[in-house]
Amino acid sequence: xxxxxxxxxxxxxxxxxxxxxxxxxxxxxxxxxxxxxxxxxxxxxxxxxxxxxxxxxxxxxxxxxxxxxxxxxxxxxxxxxxxxxxxxxxxxxxxxxxxxxxxxxxxxxxxxxxxxxxxxxxxxxxxxxxxxxxxxxxxxxxxxxxxxxxxxxxxxxxxxxxxxxxxxxxxxxxxxxxxxxxxxxxxxxxxxxxxxxxxxxxxxxxxxxxxxxxxxxxxxxxxxxxxxxxxxxxxxxxxxxxxxxxxxxxxxxxxxxxxxxxxxxxxxxxxxxxxxxxxxxxxxxxxxxxxxxxxxxxxxxxxxxxxxxxxxxxxxxxxxxxxxxxxxxxxxxxxxxxxxxxxxxxxxxxxxxxxxxxx
Length: 359
Prior knowledge:
The protein is of the alpha/beta class. It is 37% helix and 18% strand. It has helices at 17-30, 44-52, 54-60, 83-89, 156-167, 173-187, 197-211, 213-224, 229-240, 257-262, 275-278, 316-321, 340-353, and strands at residues 13-14, 33-37, 65-70, 90-92, 104-109, 130-135, 146-149, 243-245, 250-255, 287-293, 300-307, 325-326, 330-336. Strand 3 (65-70), helix 4 and strand 4 (90-92) form a beta-alpha-beta unit. The longest helix has 15 residues, at 173-187. The termini are far apart.
């Protein structure tokens, strides 16, 4: 017997927000619990997009319980006044240890591979858990899960903003604060070149129109000022470990757990600014990178790459060579090595293979 194909199959891979919202909203309506995730070492966009989407989810399913999971503790200084929200609204538990149930909807925002939200690199969600993905990084096509992935967006927070806009759902100020936070974090306070810069400016303009200039400037003030003392201590370590490769025109820096502990920095303290960002404005350098020992697994090292101002060097290809990914000028990944020296050599080997690569 021949089974006719569904004449109106669900298109999992949406090309536009408009294509994505209807099947996405149906998943929201049918969910008993909605599980969100910070990715490993959560940054401003990870926190901003996941907190910022909460009212959108409630608009289509007011009865669903919303849970945010994180394998890592977010920075204590993401923004001083949101610490209470961080403590009340998410659980610091590795998602691979979480007990999922029938009727759960798992939404990954700012990452597409679910293993990126855990300490288990082989982790996959249980097959009975429904899934949806929102991301703005370059990744291989995903056909078997509902997803909207577009590099036209500077941040995942901007994608979430456009979900609200597409369906005409009002964004409460608290959620809008988080979306603004996420955009500012991923755009370097709107300093990084954007494929669709007007879209980023539209988010800022809409925020100011609805809630005034004060919240916008307060957010910047809190991010650029009010930094924990640990941030400055770590900055000193990064600068002390700065190396410049003459001829290759790149700079790098490193950080080990012993260096942190010798300075009295708690293992669970998460800095806002990574090492590559601390040194990205070094004169004549094409790009920078940092190699940072993982806080929980001594033989794993977290990598961050940044293109320097005025350079067209594409750092994403280096990250991809090492199993990571990201944006053309801001990327990252993780490698295994016996020590920091071996980790550095692995990165240098990848750079040498891709020497001279440009946008």
